[in-house]
Design goal:
single chain; 137 residues; alpha+beta; Arc Repressor Mutant, subunit A; Dna Ligase, domain 1; 3-stranded mixed β-sheet; 5 strands; globular; binds zinc ion
């Protein structure tokens, strides 16, 4: 499916207007594995829509997260957004805050008495010092 059609379908399913603002955010986040912050997305969107405010980018990102298109990674310092909503792991650099994906093939065992269906999101987060920061120490 074309990305534009995909976007229109998502808007329809969520009763959103297909605005250029939403499209710009969608385009930037589509298959984006860099875990951008609000400002990253805003800086991109401003290139095509000079009038777009940081607040509307923030609102759209949260709209997308609420709809399950993105995952909002809280408590990293400021919110970052992930285009991969499947279970996966994150290496988070304690120094520069950069986030790197990694795959795991098996889920860790759930604590006893917790039904699988009650789990809303699975993320394994490992804190580390990335090679670039390690070098600049
Ligand atoms: Zn780092
Ligand atoms: Zn990720």
């Amino acid at each position: 499916m074309e990305r534009a059609d995909e976007f229109r379908q998502i808007c329809k399913a969520n009763h959103w207007k297909c605005t250029p603002q939403r499209l710009a955010v969608y385009n930037y986040m589509h298959n984006n594995t860099c875990h951008p912050s609000v400002d990253d997305v805003w800086n991109f969107a401003r290139q095509s829509i000079s009038s777009i405010t940081r607040e509307s980018v923030y609102r759209i990102l949260n709209e997308f997260s609420d709809a399950g298109i993105l995952y909002r990674m809280d408590k990293i310092e400021s919110a970052h957004y992930d285009s991969q909503t499947m279970p996966h792991g994150h290496l988070v650099c304690e120094k520069c805050g950069k986030v790197k994906d990694f795959c795991f093939t098996e889920l860790p065992p759930l604590p006893a008495g917790i039904p699988q269906e009650s789990i809303l999101h699975i993320e394994l987060r490992l804190a580390w010092i990335c090679p670039a920061c390690e070098k600049s120490k």
